[in-house]
Amino acid sequence: MSELSPSHLAGQVQGHLNNTCTRAIYTTAARTGTMAEKMCKCNRWVVSVQSAFESDDFEKMYREAVQCITPEDFCDITKKQHQEDVLQCILGRLLLRHATHMFTGTPWNEIQFGRTEKGKPFLLNPPHTTFGLNITHQGDFVGFASSCTSSVGVDVMRLDKERAGKTADDYINSMAKSASPDELRMMRSQPTEAMKMTMFYRYWCLKEAFLKATGDGIIDDLSRINFKVDMNDRYRPGCFVTSTTVLMDDKLQSQWIFEESFVNGNHAAAVCKESVLPRWCLFGKDPNARVFFSKVSFDTLLKHASHLNPLPDNASNAYKEFVAKPRRTF
């Protein structure tokens, strides 16, 4: 994992303090009914897959985790080929339930999720919630974002340095049908290979977050989506860029705002959320507020979990099947 710059470390500390304070408030507020509805629910979390693997208690946590997701999720997830893919999906399911429990106080076994026709998860129980949740996984991280309104999208993108002999222009050309003419010009005009690739990943991250927030998934012509970035706002580890805008079919989509930041030195993140926010939202009170991504550990996600999928021998066979799968490199 790349070393973090001092400015980014300071940002991570600020994000950690914001989220720690928020978690403490939820613990109390969840018991007071409607009071919890008036608390800001804007959180940004990541779980490191590599750190989870390196934990001394990994086997114990894995065996617990596979019993704390639904039988349907367990069946689908464990069909995946690589250990990393299985673990990323499990962590994503745990993040959604963990957040819902924190925000509402609903017992783990009473939380229910459904999916839209396009596959986006949404809360069935508790009903009538007004906040939004979204997850993503790529590279070493599983990312999570929540918002005080129902629509939010998040994407995390690893800025790969190894490109299998391809140049930055090769990558940009491969994206040509998915980028607007303005985006292509911006990518191609960057002075170095590294800057071209960073811009490539930046646009891809933004488009993923936008499509997840709108619930559209993948649309036929991604070039209809045109992001405008302000190059005066430095895009690098430690940044928190909110000046980016998006046009759809040449029309400004002012109902959406974006947060761009970095999880670490080589993982970029983008969050898309609604621009109209309730008065109790941190961002509604202060448009210049910043909530950076803070790291959450595997064991933290299991603290309030309960079994939904009890397995024989405390999931010992499930763990054996898991470790028999091949690993992939990050």
From TrEMBL:
Coiled coil: none annotated. Keywords: Transferase. The keyword Transferase applies. It catalyses: apo-[ACP] + acetyl-CoA = acetyl-[ACP] + adenosine 3',5'-bisphosphate + H(+); apo-[ACP] + CoA = holo-[ACP] + adenosine 3',5'-bisphosphate + H(+). It holds the Pfam family AASDHPPT_N. It comes from the Eukaryota. GO terms for biological process: lysine biosynthetic process via aminoadipic acid. Residues 60-148 form the 4'-phosphopantetheinyl transferase N-terminal domain. PANTHER family: L-AMINOADIPATE-SEMIALDEHYDE DEHYDROGENASE-PHOSPHOPANTETHEINYL TRANSFERASE (PTHR12215:SF23), PHOSPHOPANTETHEINE TRANSFERASE (PTHR12215). This is L-aminoadipate-semialdehyde dehydrogenase-phosphopantetheinyl transferase. It comes from Trichostrongylus colubriformis (Black scour worm).
